[in-house]
Amino acid sequence: MDISSDNAGLRLQDLDGNVKVDTRRSDLVRCTNIKGTVELRGHGTDVELTKIAGQVTINGDYTGTIALRELVKPVKVESMRTEMSVERIPGEIRLERGNVSLQNVVGPVRLNTRSSDVSLDGFTNGIELSVDKGDIELRPGHLPLGKMSVRTRSGNIELALPQTANFALSAITDHGEVDNSFGEALKQRSDGPGAKLEGSVGVGPDVNLTTNRGSITIRKAGGEAGSTTKVSAVGRSQSQNTPQIASLRY
Q: Whole-model pTM?
């Protein structure tokens, strides 16, 4: 099914074949329970895609919210502010101006976005993430971990890992500080106005975190208190008992 829309919104539901939509200006494109592929191109405001059985491709400038739920095949999004590819979305992804949220997704995940805070909660397999300006929060959902390559030019990075996770870490901030609750296995040092945290916990994949300006926090996910060590730009190091907060979303 090929559809071209100049102005009106578009709602499609319970279709067996493939869907191709070209929009020039629309308030909402909503596709639900489509048995084939969905290809969306053009311009508009909001996009909602739910229960799509085939591959999903979005290419265009959609200025509102892009909401993706229960997509069982690969997904690719290309817009003026975000490029993203994901293997599957059992949960939900929301792309909004200033905020990108991924919850319960299957990677590999590749995401490149401009000025947005990014949250990944419950992801599996590897991730490649690049942000020009914005904070990043990462909470992997399952073990073993996948390889992670994460960078923001300006923003904080927080990574909450299961307490039994194995990984090889390199965390670098050019202007900021690092916090670590995994103990002496990770070596911390100041480096001019910045700081570094490097080392291995068990045998696991590479986890590379970099921010040009901001702090990096590596903590244990869960409800138990742990000892957190902080190294700041001026070289001070101190340990403090900090409660670890479980982050649960439904």
A: 0.86
Tell how strand 89-96 and strand 117-123 pair up.
unpaired
127-144 pLDDT, tens digit per residue, is 999 999 999 999 998 899
Q: Is the pLDDT of residue 30 over 70?
A: yes
Residues 79, 80, 84, 85, CA torsion sign: positive
DSSP string over the chain: -EEEESSS-EEEEEE-S-EEEEESS-SEEEEEEESS-EEEEEEESEEEEEEE-S-EEEEEEE-S-EEEEEE-S-EEEE-SSEEEEESBEEEEEEEETTEEEEES-BS-EEEEEEE-EEEEEEEBS-EEEEEEE--EEEEE-SSSPPPEEEEEEES-EEEEE-TT--EEEEEEESSS-EEE-SGGGEEEEEETTEEEEEEEESS--EEEEEEEES-EEEEE-SSSEEEEEEE-TT--EEEEEEEPPP----
- As a whole-number percent, the residues of the chain with pLDDT over 90 amount to 77
End-to-end CA distance of the chain: 35
CA 224 to each of CA 134, 162, 217, 243: distance values in angstroms, whole numbers, following the listed order: 29, 12, 17, 6
Burial annotation 185-195 (CB, 10 A radius, 16+ → b, else e): ebebebeeebb
